[in-house]
Design goal:
single chain, about 350 residues, alpha/beta, 8-stranded mixed sheet, 18 strands, elongated
Length: about 350
């Protein structure tokens, strides 16, 4: 097999979920496993957390079916709700909690013939302006759905736009919008994403919705995962598949942009942008070989990248290369590339095998 693997530490996943719960004692938490558990493998994540998590959250019916194949009885929230009226019968058969984020969804639910009532989460647009009702519209929809035959629980949820920016004035504005509705009768309330779980206790309602923190990445630019007590879950590891000496003045890689300024020793590594490593990784971006950081040399290719191992003479063929994980934090690489850990994790492609450990 090609020497490249994404190792997923299930013990770290459990640790991070427990940390989320410790941040808000007495609250329940939906473990967000959408996007194939942020690239880690939804089936394995659900199996790992099924005896620990209060519930799970996904973005689509297809993702819900994957969770149900592993855990038939867990509470399972469909974050964006149903996209077509006929999906409500499927949601009922799967026993889902369903978000209602607009008038069309509310009307479709009331018109649907379903085998059992659904737990409904009315979504407030408190300032994100992506999905959800205005305060007034939500009040009207609450009145329409309260006591409806197709509704079991009637719950309230919203989503932060800037919780990853501590002290941002929109956070307080959004909280005020949310709290303004609490005179209505709701069975449960949910607001806190990972950033709010970690730093915004006023948003700790009945249910938390931790996502990126479960996978050991920080939602904050200025706070590392280690500082927050999170453990990295995925380690992406390749191998040195070739080593060559490059004289002064010779270039490496596409575009010939990297030119040796000294007699250099270059290692070719079995990972590229088709595997999910960012092509935008800038000069100086490091990987780890034998516990030492070494920088990229030239552009990232589709299937390979090159690193300068001149200062690591003991490195050689078949050495393991950590692209990110315990030695190279995912957030460090993401910031260097002008993106976020979420994107890197979810872009690890299916040709990269996942190996699960539980240390």
């Amino acid at each position: 097999m090609r020497p490249l693997v994404a190792t997923v530490d299930l013990a770290a996943l459990r640790h991070n979920y427990q940390l989320a719960k410790q941040c808000a004692p007495g609250r329940k938490a939906f473990a967000v496993v959408k996007a194939d558990a942020y690239g880690h493998g939804a089936q394995a994540a659900v199996e790992c957390l099924r005896d620990l998590a209060d519930g799970f959250a996904v973005a689509s019916l297809e993702e819900a079916e994957q969770v149900r194949a592993v855990d038939a009885g867990t509470r399972l929230l469909l974050l964006e709700g149903c996209f077509e009226p006929k999906e409500y019968s499927v949601a009922a058969k799967l026993g889902l909690d369903v978000a209602i984020q607009g008038e069309a969804q509310a009307a479709a639910l009331l018109d649907a013939t379903i085998e059992r009532p659904l737990n409904v989460w009315l979504k407030l647009d408190s300032g994100m302006h992506r999905l959800g009702f205005s305060v007034d519209a939500l009040r009207r929809t609450h009145a329409r759905l309260q006591g409806a035959a197709s509704v079991a629980e009637l719950n309230l949820m919203s989503h932060f736009a800037c919780a990853d920016e501590r002290g941002h004035p929109l956070n307080e504005t959004q909280l005020e919008q949310f709290v303004s509705l609490l005179d209505l009768q709701f069975d449960n309330r949910s607001f806190a994403n990972s950033a709010a779980v970690l730093t915004l206790s006023a948003a700790h309602m009945d249910w938390l919705r931790p996502g990126i923190m479960l996978y050991g990445a920080s939602p904050f630019a200025e706070l590392s995962a280690e500082t927050l007590g999170l453990k990295p879950v995925m380690t992406l590891t390749a191998s040195v598949i070739a080593v060559r000496d490059v004289p002064v003045g010779e270039s490496v890689g596409y575009g010939a942009g990297w030119v040796a300024q000294r007699p250099s020793r270059i290692a070719t590594v079995s990972c590229g942008y088709a595997d999910g490593y960012p092509r935008t990784a800038p000069p100086g971006t490091c990987v780890a070989i034998r516990g030492q950081r070494v920088p990229l040399a030239g552009r990232v290719s589709m299937d390979m990248l090159a690193v300068d191992i001149t200062d690591l003479p003991q490195a050689g063929l078949n050495d393991a290369v950590e692209l990110w994980g315990t030695q190279i934090p995912i957030d460090e690489l993401a910031q260097a590339c002008g993106t976020i850990g979420y994107e890197l994790l979810t872009k690890v492609t299916q040709r990269v095998p996942r190996r699960y450990i539980n240390d």
